[in-house]
UniProtKB/TrEMBL annotation:
The active site is at residues 59, 137, 161. Heterotrimer of A, B and C subunits. It comes from Arenicella xantha. This is Glutamyl-tRNA(Gln) amidotransferase subunit A. Allows the formation of correctly charged Gln-tRNA(Gln) through the transamidation of misacylated Glu-tRNA(Gln) in organisms which lack glutaminyl-tRNA synthetase. The reaction takes place in the presence of glutamine and ATP through an activated gamma-phospho-Glu-tRNA(Gln). It comes from the Bacteria. One of its GO terms (molecular function) is glutaminyl-tRNA synthase (glutamine-hydrolyzing) activity.
């Protein structure tokens, strides 16, 4: 097209300025426009990349050199990152423009964006008489793309934080295989589960984003050293002969009946595309949530020990000695959900309890992973609902952690097993709320997963 990146970026910046979704924690218009001008220069020289000049919003969990990076926490308010996350660098290397940093649950802990120190985010699909959450923890990224404040955004997914907000905001959200995208410069929550991924309108856009974001990085010890891939390469392949497995455990108690109907209808549509549908079982699925809520807090309690008021971010102003400084800093700097996780995690890791909780949870994780291996002997992809319900009202679940945790009951198993998974648009409820269809594929089969998503869209 003829629109310059500067014009495009300007347009998005003014939409952001005029919006009331609270989707962004910070923007730096001058910096974004400078990046856009540089991209326009490259366009003038006929340099082409599908992302050249494209503005992209970045979840505020990614460090960007010289930019405030808060992770949604008071603890990091005003923290200026001294280096850039690999994922952001890779998107930049394709000529994309950083539009700003999006709102998120504090340290990515949450499913509603309500734990952000920078305030709740409004779901653009909220009806006139009610304010709904966008999901979380990548709630700002989801709201930004859904409201047309950015054409695409990055997110991170430890237990569902890309897929659940994608389903609440009618987007395509992809969590890649564990190790696909470097975690370098992405503030750690639960290191064995965390993965970065794209949040877009379509699988086609997600494929372009992932192609730029993925790749080996020697600065992340769990980064996969596999060949670079073009994730768009299979998009247009036929689905003739595809076998879809539908785990019966994903349609049990707690699932909203309208969501079930919409998801079943979406899966049925695949028959017209040449697919066969088969009922399968993941018998240990009920163990996913309990094992996740030991493993994720355990890793978080360790990762978050670095926020001690000494090295970066917030420090309490009144204290008597070093221990008092640590205590007051962490008491004042962290919100309730983060403290809850740190306490659960420290307990699960403590001597005498480690074997009973942490090591037990790791064993359950293996069983869950084995279930997937067995299921994929019978099918090419698994499908079900992304979440048990559509988006809910702000303040309706904030005081009930367990009901909040149940949001991720269908998404967490893929994180525990390290598998790629996506949420795509399945349809709308009678109240016009979006519902997501969840797709899980075998390890490293993102290209196939995106093909399956694209053929439906
Ligand atoms: N909602 C889940 C949690 O609070 C998942 C969060 C995430 O994926 N970052 O832990």
């Amino acid at each position: 097209g003829k629109t310059s990146s500067v014009e495009l970026t300007q347009d998005y910046l003014s939409r952001i300025k005029n919006s009331n979704h609270n989707a962004f924690i910070s923007i730096d218009a001058e910096q974004s426009l400078a990046e856009a001008a540089a991209a326009d220069d490259l366009r003038g020289q006929q340099k082409t990349s599908p992302l050249l000049g494209l503005p992209i919003a970045q979840k505020d969990i990614f460090c960007i050199d010289g930019t405030q990076t808060t992770c949604g926490s008071k603890m990091l308010e005003g923290f200026i990152a001294p280096y850039t996350a690999t994922v952001v660098d890779k998107l930049k290397a394709q000529g994309s423009v950083n539009l700003g940093k999006t709102n998120m649950d504090e340290f990515a802990m949450g499913s509603s964006n309500e734990s952000s120190y920078f305030g709740a985010v409004i779901n653009p699909w909220s009806p006139a008489n009610e304010t709904l959450v966008p999901g979380g923890s990548s709630g700002g990224s989801a709201a930004a793309v859904a409201a047309g404040l950015a054409p695409a955004a990055t997110g991170t997914d430890t237990g569902g934080s890309i897929r659940q907000p994608a389903s609440f905001c009618n987007l395509t959200g992809l969590k890649p295989s564990y190790g696909r995208c470097s975690r370098y410069g992405m503030i750690a929550f639960a290191s064995s589960l965390d993965q970065a991924g794209p949040m877009t309108h379509t699988a086609e856009d997600a494929a372009l984003m992932l192609t730029a974001m993925a790749g080996f990085d020697q600065r992340d010890s769990t980064s996969l050293n596999v060949p670079q891939e073009d994730f768009s390469r299979l998009l247009n392949e036929s689905l003739n002969g595809l076998t879809i497995g539908v785990p019966k455990e994903f349609f049990g108690e707690g699932l909203d009946s309208e969501v079930a109907t919409l998801v079943e209808a979406a899966i049925k549509e695949y028959e017209a595309l040449g697919a066969t549908i088969k009922s399968v079982s993941l018998p240990n699925s009920h163990l996913a949530l309990p094992s996740y809520y030991v493993i994720a807090p355990a890793e978080a309690s360790s990762n978050l020990s670095r926020f001690d008021g000494v090295r970066y971010g917030f420090r309490a102003s009144d204290y008597t000695d070093l221990v008092d400084m640590y205590t007051k800093t962490r008491t004042e700097g962290f919100g309730d959900e983060v403290k809850r996780r740190i306490m659960i995690g420290a307990y699960a890791l403590s001597s005498g309890y480690y074997d009973a909780y942490y090591s037990k949870a790791q064993k359950l994780r293996r069983l869950i992973s084995n279930d997937f291996d067995a299921a994929f002997e019978q099918c090419d992809v698994l499908m079900g609902p992304t979440t048990p319900s559509p988006a809910f009202a702000i303040n309706s679940r904030a005081d009930d952690p367990v009901s909040m945790y149940l949001n991720d009951i269908y998404t967490i198993p893929a994180n525990l097993a390290g598998l790629p998974a996506a949420s795509i648009q399945a349809g709308f409820t009678n109240n016009n709320l979006p519902v997501g269809l969840h797709l899980i594929s075998p390890y490293l089969q993102e290209a196939k997963l995106l093909n399956i998503a694209h053929q439906y869209q």
